[in-house]
């Protein structure tokens, strides 16, 4: 069998053609693999799998399989060639000018795999100018000379039509036809970007994610007479429409009615058929697969794959289950390598939380699984930079959206009191918006980083920092002259924040009631595991305040674990609570 080969990318870039006579090589800048390395054992097992591409399907090399027991992953070596898979697919070869119209008509019957285009180029069949006279056709793909003001019929164009025709020779970088003028018209690129581009060109360009190999039967007409190259040229430019994977073993009679109608129309309108069914071989390389798909192939069958991780600066934070612990090094090494290869070179460390948070400072016990052992990093959020040490302070990147939502309710007249500020993701971000921020945290390390971050972001003049217990901070703030100016109170300590609400009982008990007061809006966060989490959290707030008759705006923030919700409750401090009897817990 003879073969022609092409590479696909997720965007329409120039394609690289590779050919071979004795072996089929699929080349990327990372590795080279031959078909002789593969075994067909995975193909038989793949038929029972779900629809779509999978590392458990197709023709594959012998992949790494960890053995049972602790420490089986200690000698694991990450090899990209283990994740190459080959699939047999059927394709409809169509004229290039009709490919987009046919793609729209047959959309539901095409391959439709993620990150794989349904249209593939056929190498070697583009019409060249040297064959135009022999074939008696016009080359629509050739560029116009641009020097003669004539149309295709040889008649002179007027100035309006000529300008319209000339405008088609522009693109986003300038003139297409005038290279020197194009360099002048486009803006200069930064040296760093140019250096990266040169490095990519030197390494063969962007890694290919997949390749399509067209399999053709030998012995066709005119192959011996004019040669294969001329045979491909005279047929004109064509494209491949990759069909659904279920059609690879079917006959034309068993194809869907929509494809049969297209074939009937082609036979009726053309003396010689322009559509042809061909068998293809689709190869998916390492760069095609996502991290969870790679881990699924590495871990034992049936094990739940850790599908996500949190990124904190240069640190990737995993939350592995107990069943993953025997393979934690394997998961860490593969995750570390995959993250680096998936255009995230900033990741330098992979850690795992080895225990739940028990201490008052909300710090996590982390185990470094791969990379360097530095847990000090810089996080960018809302245009601000935060220095964070995960060994001594708490940070949760998954709450960035919730913090942004909370900040959107503040205005320039507000004075914010952040009771559990941490390193300042809310306090410092609020300082850009509001008039004044009072930030507090019990952890002295968090206060140290809060002060550093406020200076780093040039907002230290708008933030006053405190280091004390939450109840003492609330009592100190509302018993001082600052109390009348506070309009927003944030209590972002979901595990215990509701228990601190009793500190607001009687905060104005020593002040005359006839004095005008502006009661602050309190935003308190909490967890709930019951069937109705909103009702449960609402009841806990009412019990802590010893008040029932007040409105609470409740919303679910996110599901932190199966059956465990994080919620946010917002309400205006009731007057009866502020002037009520004080809490006995305030010291």
Automatic annotation (TrEMBL):
UniProt keyword list: Cytoplasm, Methyltransferase, Mitochondrion, Nucleus, S-adenosyl-L-methionine, Transferase, tRNA processing
UniProt binding sites for S-adenosyl-L-methionine: 403, 441-442, 469-470, 492
InterPro entries for the chain: MeTrfase_TRM5/TYW2, SAM-dependent_MTases_sf, TRM5-TYW2-like_MTfase, TRM5/TYW2-like_N, tRNA_Gua_MeTrfase_euk
Catalytic activity: guanosine(37) in tRNA + S-adenosyl-L-methionine = N(1)-methylguanosine(37) in tRNA + S-adenosyl-L-homocysteine + H(+)
Compartment list: Mitochondrion matrix; Nucleus; Cytoplasm
Domain SAM-dependent methyltransferase TRM5/TYW2-type per the UniProt entry, residue ranges: 309-575
Domain of life: Eukaryota
One Pfam family recorded for the sequence: TRM5-TYW2_MTfase
EC number: 2.1.1.228
Family matches, as Gene3D superfamilies: Met-10+ protein-like domains, Vaccinia Virus protein VP39
A GO BP annotation: mitochondrial tRNA methylation
Gene Ontology CC, one term: nucleus
Chief place where the protein resides: mitochondrion
GO molecular function: tRNA (guanine(37)-N1)-methyltransferase activity
Role description: Specifically methylates the N1 position of guanosine-37 in various cytoplasmic and mitochondrial tRNAs. Methylation is not dependent on the nature of the nucleoside 5' of the target nucleoside. This is the first step in the biosynthesis of wybutosine (yW), a modified base adjacent to the anticodon of tRNAs and required for accurate decoding.
Family classification: Belongs to the TRM5 / TYW2 family.
Quaternary structure and interacting proteins, as annotated: Monomer.
Protein name: tRNA (guanine(37)-N1)-methyltransferase
UniProt source species: Dipteronia dyeriana
């Amino acid at each position: 069998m003879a073969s022609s080969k092409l590479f696909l990318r997720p965007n329409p870039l120039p394609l690289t053609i590779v050919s071979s006579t004795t072996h089929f090589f699929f080349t990327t800048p990372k590795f080279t693999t031959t078909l002789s390395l593969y075994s067909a054992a995975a193909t038989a097992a793949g038929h029972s799998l779900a629809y779509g591409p999978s590392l458990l399907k197709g023709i594959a090399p012998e992949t790494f399989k960890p053995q049972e027991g602790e420490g089986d992953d200690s000698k694991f070596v990450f090899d990209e060639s283990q994740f190459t898979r080959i699939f047999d697919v059927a394709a409809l070869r169509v004229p290039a000018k009709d490919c987009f119209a046919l793609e729209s008509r047959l959309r539901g019957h095409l391959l439709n795999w993620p990150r794989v285009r349904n249209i593939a180029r056929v190498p070697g069949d583009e019409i060249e100018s040297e064959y135009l006279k022999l074939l008696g056709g016009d080359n629509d793909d050739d560029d116009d000379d641009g020097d003669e003001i004539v149309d295709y019929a040889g008649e002179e164009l007027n100035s309006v039509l000529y300008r319209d025709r000339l405008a088609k020779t522009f693109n986003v970088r300038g003139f297409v036809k005038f290279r020197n003028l194009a360099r002048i018209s486009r803006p200069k690129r930064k040296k760093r970007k140019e250096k990266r581009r040169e490095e990519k060109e030197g390494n063969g360009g962007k890694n290919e994610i997949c390749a399509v190999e067209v399999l053709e039967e030998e012995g066709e007409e005119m192959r011996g007479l004019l040669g294969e190259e001329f045979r491909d040229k005279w047929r004109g430019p064509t494209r491949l429409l990759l069909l659904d994977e279920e059609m690879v073993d079917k006959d034309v009679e068993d194809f869907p009615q929509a494809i049969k109608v297209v074939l009937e129309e082609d036979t009726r309108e053309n003396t010689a058929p322009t559509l042809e069914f061909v068998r293809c071989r689709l190869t998916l390389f390492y760069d095609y697969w996502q991290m969870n798909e790679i881990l699924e192939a590495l871990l034992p069958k049936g094990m739940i794959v850790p599908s996500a991780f949190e990124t904190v600066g240069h640190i990737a934070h995993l939350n592995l289950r107990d069943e993953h612990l025997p393979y934690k090094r394997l998961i860490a090494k593969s995750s570390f390598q995959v993250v680096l290869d998936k255009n995230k070179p900033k990741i330098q460390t992979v850690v795992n939380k080895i225990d739940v948070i028990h201490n008052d400072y909300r710090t996590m016990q982390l185990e470094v699984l791969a990379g360097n052992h530095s847990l000090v990093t810089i996080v960018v959020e809302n245009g601000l930079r935060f220095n964070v040490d995960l060994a001594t302070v708490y940070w949760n990147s998954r709450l960035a959206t919730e913090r942004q939502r909370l900040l959107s309710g503040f205005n320039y007249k507000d004075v914010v009191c952040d009771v559990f500020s941490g390193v300042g993701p809310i306090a410092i971000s609020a300082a850009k918006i509001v008039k004044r921020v009072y930030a507090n945290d019990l952890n002295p390390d968090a206060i140290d980083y809060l002060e550093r971050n406020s200076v780093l972001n040039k907002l230290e003049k708008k933030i006053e920092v405190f280091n004390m217990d939450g109840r003492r901070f609330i009592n100190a703030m509302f018993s001082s002259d600052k109390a009348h100016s506070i309009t927003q109170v944030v209590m972002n300590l979901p595990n215990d924040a509701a228990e601190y609400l009793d500190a607001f009982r009687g905060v104005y008990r020593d002040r005359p009631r006839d004095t005008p007061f502006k009661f602050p809006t309190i935003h308190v966060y909490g967890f709930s595991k019951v069937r109705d989490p909103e009702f449960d959290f609402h009841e806990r707030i009412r019990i802590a305040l010893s008040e029932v008759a007040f409105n609470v705006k409740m919303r679910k923030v996110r599901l932190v674990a199966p059956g465990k919700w994080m919620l946010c409750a917002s309400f205006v401090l009731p007057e009866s609570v502020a002037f009520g009897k004080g809490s006995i817990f305030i010291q």
